[in-house]
């Protein structure tokens, strides 16, 4: 599955909290979600959704989940 454009560009349209979770989760995942769908929809997905759920607002949580759901469907 190839994603159109960089996932990071779509993530930049949401709040700072999800962006912080994106960066933290990418570091912890040990892979690059911008370059690998396996990373984006695997370990990174679990890390970033957990981070956003634990630390961000409901709106940011839904925006991040919407992006990831579209990317990984």
Characterize the structure shown.
With 73 residues, the protein is mostly helical. It has one domain (19-72). It is 70% helix and 0% strand. It is built from 5 helices and no strands. The chain has helices at residues 7-11, 16-29, 37-40, 43-55, 58-72. α4 runs antiparallel to α5. The radius of gyration is 11 Å and the shape is globular. The N and C termini lie close together (9 Å). One of its GO terms (cellular component) is extracellular region. Belongs to the RBT5 family. Keywords: Disulfide bond, Glycoprotein, GPI-anchor, Lipoprotein, Membrane, Secreted, Signal.
Brief digest:
The protein is an all-alpha fold. It has helices at residues 7-11, 16-29, 37-40, 43-55, 58-72.
Instruction: Describe the global form.
Output: globular
* Helix percentage range: 55-70%
Oligomer: single chain
Instruction: Describe the largest sheet.
Output: none
Query: First CA to last CA: what distance?
Result: 9 Å
| Overall tally of structural domains | 1
């Amino acid at each position: 599955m190839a994603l159109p454009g960089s996932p990071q560009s779509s993530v930049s349209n949401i709040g700072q909290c999800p962006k912080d979770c994106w960066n933290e989760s990418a570091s912890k995942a040990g892979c690059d979600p911008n370059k690998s769908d396996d990373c984006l929809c695997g370990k990174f997905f679990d890390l970033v959704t957990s981070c956003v759920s634990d630390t961000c607002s409901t709106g940011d949580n839904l925006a991040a989940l919407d992006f990831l759901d579209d990317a990984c469907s």
